[in-house]
Amino acid sequence: MTTPAIQVTDVTVHYGEVLALDHASLSVAPGRVCGLIGMNGSGKSTMFGAIMGRLRPDTGNVLINGENPAKARKQGTIGYVPQSEAVDWAFPLSVRDVVMMGRYGGMGITRRPRRADHDAVDRALERVELTEFAGRQIGQLSGGQKKRAFVARGIAQGATTLLLDEPFAGVDKRSEATMTRLLRELASDGATILVSTHDLHALPALADEAVLLMRRVLMHGSPAEVLKPENLALAFGLDVLDRAESQDSTEPQHSPHAQDSEDAA
Ligand SMILES: Nc1ncnc2c1ncn2[C@@H]1O[C@H](COP(=O)(O)OP(=O)(O)OP(=O)(O)O)[C@@H](O)[C@H]1O
Predict the structure, then answer these.
(1) What's the average model confidence in pLDDT over 45-74?
(2) Would you say residue 111 lies in a domain?
(3) 38 within ligand 1 shell (Cβ under 6 A)
(4) Ligand 1 near 84 CB (within 6 A)
(5) How close is the Cα of 20 to the center of ligand 1, in Å?
(6) 132 is in which domain, residue-wise?
(7) Coil, helix or strand at residue 72
(8) What spacing in Å lies between the alpha carbon of 134 and ligand 1's midpoint?
(9) Mean pLDDT over all residues of the chain?
């Protein structure tokens, strides 16, 4: 049997009295795109923290390609695209600097970048179609472009597992389509991708499989199965069913995110 790219087994996490993950288990095979969905506070970011080895579970364990997550992080095999809120966009770093950070994990921040590092950064920028923005301060990109800059950081570091926390929040449909295409291409090249999203409409085009999270994994199946209103109701509450009926759709939750535009950049 193939070793799962991401294996979360029986993970429980508390923040003081708050139970954020409750014996959650999840397995994602290499080359798959998996959507992680759940309401606010259902534990998605905590799940990412556990997978990245940034927090120590009270119970259970995580393996990345059969390795300890701290080791995977050190080796650069796991990359992370944070929520926009988690980034200080005013920081005086260019897009190229951000992508170059993907190379520091392997070489230590004290070493000057070498030709191979610059080449890897160039290739990553090209892959995410940001070459022309390389010199721009990171905060002066559109929402979708910022996300792609962080994907490029993961590509430059050679990550084979990518975690994306809300990559579609605050981006327009065109940026969403560009990101979806990019993630699908990376997966066909063998990368494993776990994406948390509130945008349920994005899931069928994006993901091979989806996980419903509510402190524990309520369901893990195809997007079509997970998006059935009766299954979404398990994670989002019964009002989802009412909205689904009124829209005559199996994709009941429209993303309320603010729009921005790549063209505005
Ligand atoms: N540092 C913290 N200290 C205390 N409680 C926390 C902390 N971080 C998260 N929590 C709580 O843990 C639970 C899970 O939070 P988490 O951020 O993982 O959820 P989420 O699904 O990512 O939410 P969102 O969709 O809003 O980003 C929530 O009840 C949250 O309030």
Answers:
(1) 93
(2) yes
(3) yes
(4) no
(5) 7
(6) 87-157
(7) helix
(8) 34
(9) 86
Give the least confident one: 47-56, 77-86, 191-200.
Answer: 77-86
Residue 222 located in a structural domain:
no
For the CA of 49, the closest atom of ligand 1 is 18
What total of structural domains would you count in the chain? 1
pTM over 0.90: no
Dihedral (Cα; 20, 47, 143, 232), 10-degree rounding = -70
Take atom 27 of ligand 1 and give the residue whose Cα is closest. 40
Write the CB contacts of 20 (distance below 8 Å, at least 6 apart in sequence): 13, 14, 43, 46, 215
The answer to whether ipTM exceeds 0.95 is yes
Place of tokens 């080796």: 75
Give me Rg for the CA atoms of the chain: 18
Average pLDDT estimate for 31-57:
94
**pLDDT attached to residue 248:** 45
Kindly state whether residue 139 falls inside one of the protein's structural domains: yes
CA of 17 to the centre of ligand 1 (A): 12
Ligand 1 atom with the smallest distance to the CA of 16 is 4
Q: Is residue 135 part of a domain?
A: yes
